[in-house]
Amino acid sequence: MRALRISLILLVVFGVLFTVADRLSLMFAEGEVATRARSGLGLESEPGVSIKGFPFLTQLLGKRIDHVELDISDYGVELDGRQTRLEDLSIELRNTRIAGDFSGARAERASGTGVLGYRELGELATQEVKEVHDSLAVEFGYAGEGQVIIQVTVLGQKLVPEMTADLVLHEESQLVQLKVDEIPSLDGLPLVGSGLEDQLREWVDREREIRGLPEGLSLDGVEAAENGVNLAVTGTDVGLDGA
């Protein structure tokens, strides 16, 4: 009995030591991944990193991490060549191969989501429509049922009715388009000149490109929500450090 008791005590001690070593290794690895991601993706601060699965040491020895979650609060992209920000970009990476010193990491597949806020979209859209006429401005909002509201103002006066649009992703070209049935009439606003409705229609129907997503990721879906336009991204052979 004494020998059995000693064996059980040693087993518990070794188990605790292994768990502590595993958690310390995990914390170190998450810090290294965060540092590499910040540098490789050009982030202003380190992203949140969470490596899933226990034990971690067996994954580290095999140089393959099953599941990594990367949370980036603010990520720069381009919408039709104009700088804007993705909020709350969250990326899940699966089966990530790593170098021994974390100098390189690539995931077999990845998926994630990010948000284009309505305020930022309105600012970008206003820059665009001022090229049509400098009296125009645009605001975006949520219309419900996956649609967005487009509120155009002319000389500070809101066009009625506001436009309601569906969001369409053309997967092959990776272009996003607004689908609006009718453009509000401008008959009561003679000061802005003729032909403006046709120019507004052309602006609304324009296909738009989002560039600058992390290497290996592409758009998989767009959907309007209360907090903005949600972008779904997916990819294979994704570089964790942007390489």
Automatic annotation (TrEMBL):
Record Pfam families: LmeA
Lineage, top-rank taxon, reads Bacteria
InterPro entries according to UniProt: DUF2993
| Protein name, per record | DUF2993 domain-containing protein
The organism of origin for this protein: Streptomyces aidingensis
